[in-house]
Amino acid sequence: MIRIAKYKKEDKDIWNNFIHNSKNGIFMFQRNFMEYHSDRFVDNSLMFYDEKDNLVALLPANIKNNVLYSHQGLTYGSFITDNNIKQHKMLKCFESLKIYMQENNILQLVYKTIPHIYHKLPSEEDLYALYVNNAYLLKIEPSTTIFLASPCKMTKGRKAQISRAKREGVVIQESSDFRTFIELENKVLKENHNTKAVHTADELELLNSKFPNNIKLFVAIYGNEIIAGALLFIYDEVVHTQYLAANDKAREIGALDLLINELINKYKNSKKYLDFGISTEDNGRFLNEGLISQKEGFGGRTIAYKTFALNLINP
Predict the structure, then answer these.
(1) Residue 90 burial (C-beta neighbours within 10 Å; 0-12, 13-18, 19+)
(2) What is the pLDDT of residues 76-130, one digit of tens each?
(3) Alpha-carbon gap, residue 232 to 286, rounded angstroms
(4) DSSP letter at 289?
(5) What are the phi and psi torsion angles at 52 (to 5°)?
(6) With contact defined as beta carbons under 8 Å apart, do 21 and 14 qualify?
(7) Does residue 52 sit in helix, strand or coil?
């Protein structure tokens, strides 16, 4: 039988060490990352121990209105496991999780999977466990991803914009000016989507100070002004563009195109993938064709971000 313990602060080192040595853990599951927005979520992270009292899995999670989420404040979720876990043991983890849900009046699990490109080793035992426990697919969101070793051909339009940006003298460089960047990002989001970035400048500065090798900002400068930028989350095999922003001038002269091309060249020999993230709204139902076309123009194609739901009483 698998025993479940709710995470508590005294478990921080045990939790972080397990994430570090796991086969599918990523830096955003470290407690220093998860807890930067602890005021927004009620943490309900879980630790799974086998019959010999060995820690075999973690589930970063929060709870809201009797629903357990894996985790609403993070891009990805799912069970984090070590190299030794096998399929039968993952099934036992789900058996214990359902009992835990019953005992704590939790009616539903909403479960975000970690895309396979982020795994260090094959880690999809959870997908089979979801299936045999009658979980259902809640949403699929297409994320455009470049296989850096052999990207699809870049379109003529993207190449033309890159050449123009070079002629205009756009300069690409790493930056620590998170405040100017997030102001630009929020201006673009306000104009196009009437929304704003999830992170504030203070939060990005804090997270960068804690994870300097995983969170980096690159900007395009024109006339001593930041006109475009890319905030990167950097994983073992993947570079993820957490935010991309470009003002009208940047779009006109191809500054963001040049920036992305520079990032492709920078990471093509050290990472496997550059993941742009999703191009959908309305829980994946609406595809922003213009946005995904721009990303595909750099040689990217779709991987699926999948979210499942597991009800104690099946729908």
Answers:
(1) buried
(2) 889 999 998 999 999 999 999 999 999 999 999 999 999 999 999 999 999 999 9
(3) 25
(4) H
(5) -95, 10
(6) no
(7) coil
For the chain, the C-alpha Rg in angstroms (whole number) is 21
Residue type, 251: R
pLDDT on residue 315: 44
Mean predicted confidence (pLDDT) in 201-205: 94
Pairwise CA distance, residues 47 & 60, whole Å: 9
Pair type for strands 42-43 and 273-278: unpaired
State how far the alpha carbon of 61 is from the alpha carbons of 9, 48, 238, 261, 313, in Å: 15, 13, 23, 36, 21
Rounded CA-CA distance 170/280 in Å is 30
- Which residue, chain included where needed, has tokens 């478990």? 11
Residues of the chain with pLDDT > 90, as a percent, come to 89
Q: CA–CA separation, 99 vs 106, rounded Å? A: 10
Look at the pTM and tell me if it is higher than 0.85. Answer: yes
Token duo for residue 223: 């006339």
Cα-based distances in Å from 250 to 22, 201, 228, 294: 41, 21, 6, 14
Task: Tell me: cis bond preceding 240? Omega within 30 of 0 counts.
Answer: no
Residue 256 amino acid letter: L
| Measured distance CA(239)–CA(259) in Å, rounded | 14
Q: Strand order of the sheet with strand 67-70? A: 42-43, 62-64, 67-70, 108-112, 301-311, 136-147, 273-278, 238-246, 225-234, 215-222, 171-175
List of E strands, the chain: 3-6, 42-43, 46-49, 55-59, 62-64, 67-70, 80-81, 108-112, 136-147, 171-175, 215-222, 225-234, 238-246, 273-278, 280-281, 286-287, 301-311
Closest among 39, 48, 37, 38 to 7, alpha carbons compared: 48
3-state secondary structure of 87: helix
